[in-house]
DNA sequence: CGCTCATATTTAGGTAGCCTAATAGTTAGG
DNA sequence: CCTAACTATTAGGCTACCTAAATATGAGCG
């Protein structure tokens, strides 16, 4: 409701936005060639604990349904997911990960984790703790952003 | 050189990557309609303290020179930056922000900061401190990633 | 039952923001 | 000077989003 904030909060907001920008850049660089793209990996990770409907996938990824459909169809073509009509509601489609999909996720995560772990090695013990402490906060901010 | 890391570092890497993903999502949502795009704002902010050459802008943004040129030309068309040959090196082009550009940056930052500050209001004092402490760490990680 | 309205997905077409490769102009070193 | 290195632009392509419209199913109600 209020349009004004504690100035320190506004300063922090500015710094946080700058960190987000750097994060976007880093996230992009983490895409190795000839592997899953970031978008594909995110989608596959999302359904690795059980199939979901297209709409749920889109909502969880924070994208629109047609964008999710597009990714899903591509993943289906290369055999990483299956699409089946939801038995309870034939309007809906259940998207499930295949064995090949699971393997691809594991491989991609390992590769990317190794890249990031290498970067984290350059940090002091204290910096690592500071980073670790902030990750749940970022997650919380995101949740409140989802509305 | 080594391909294996402290497993805790790998776990942290996984969590950090997940936070980056959320950050990408948030960053995208912060783009208000009818305003500067995130890419435009980043570029303009970069030159708001003084003109830079196209190559420097690209390097600082972590993008390739042709991508920077493209953005710069668009910004020039709407009067937010000027392009002038570098007096010391006529191969190079100095890109400078205009008054309209400065105003646009200010407006865009205020809007986005207000959006983020609103989110940050939902955090506890401790969470705010944890977030603030981690931002320089993220910046450091990014620097080491630049190579 | 049959209408109508809501819901779930797909299709069609468009955009932003990256990329690589090729081109043109400028500088600098042998 | 002439060749190699550098700076920027042009051309063409890709990914991952988007909105609007089409299709199909489900659900409520008179």
TrEMBL record, chains A, B:
Residues 6-140 form the HTH marR-type domain. It comes from the Bacteria. Pfam families: MarR. One of its GO terms (molecular function) is DNA-binding transcription factor activity. SUPFAM superfamilies: Winged helix' DNA-binding domain. InterPro entries: ArsR-like_HTH, HTH-type_Bedaq_tolerance, HTH_MarR-typ, WH-like_DNA-bd_sf, WH_DNA-bd_sf. This is MarR family transcriptional regulator. It comes from Paenarthrobacter nitroguajacolicus (Arthrobacter nitroguajacolicus).
